[in-house]
């Protein structure tokens, strides 16, 4: 791997995020696409999961041990995962791509791209988790 898991230069930054999916195969298609668009590279694969890395941060997706109850972003716990976009054009391109995918959907479409008061894409992944892509000012 070659990455320092205790790097003080990265203090305070996200080290990794681990997501569990009820339908790993379907979720992997979504995350492979989105994380690739955001500059992450596939780091490792195993029977029940996959991980992608960009610089010092990595994201893990694995099969959930329990598929019930379904993910509820309004319940206690994680609500959404937000990423920086390189440009507003990238936000627009990703929005168009989500609209063409059958495994995700644009959220708050009637208020897009300012649903949160700033330029961003809000979408839902195959497991119902909200994913946000934030464009620069």
TrEMBL record:
Pfam family, one: Glyoxalase
Protein name per UniProt: Glyoxalase
GO molecular function, one term: metal ion binding
Keyword Metal-binding carried by entry: yes
PANTHER family per UniProt: FOSFOMYCIN RESISTANCE PROTEIN FOSX (PTHR36113:SF6), LYASE, PUTATIVE-RELATED-RELATED (PTHR36113)
SUPFAM superfamilies per UniProt: Glyoxalase/Bleomycin resistance protein/Dihydroxybiphenyl dioxygenase
Lineage: Archaea, Methanobacteriati, Methanobacteriota, Stenosarchaea group, Halobacteria
Keywords from the UniProt entry: Metal-binding
Coiled coil: none
Record InterPro entries: Fosfomycin_Res_Enzymes, Glyas_Bleomycin-R_OHBP_Dase, Glyas_Fos-R_dOase_dom, VOC_core
Stored Gene3D superfamilies: 2,3-Dihydroxybiphenyl 1,2-Dioxygenase, domain 1
Start and end residues of each VOC domain: 13-136
């Amino acid at each position: 791997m070659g990455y320092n898991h205790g790097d003080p230069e990265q203090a305070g930054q996200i080290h990794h995020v681990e997501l569990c999916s009820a339908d790993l195969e379907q979720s992997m298609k979504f995350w492979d696409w989105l994380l690739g668009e955001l500059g992450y590279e596939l780091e490792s694969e195993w029977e029940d999961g996959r991980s992608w890395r960009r610089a010092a941060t990595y994201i893990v997706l694995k099969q959930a041990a329990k598929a019930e109850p379904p993910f509820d972003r309004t319940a206690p716990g994680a609500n959404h995962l937000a990423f920086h976009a390189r440009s507003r054009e990238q936000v627009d391109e990703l929005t168009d791509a989500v609209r063409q995918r059958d495994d995700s959907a644009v959220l708050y479409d009637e208020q897009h791209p300012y649903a949160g008061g700033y330029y961003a894409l809000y979408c839902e992944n195959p497991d119902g988790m909200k994913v946000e892509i934030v464009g620069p000012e």
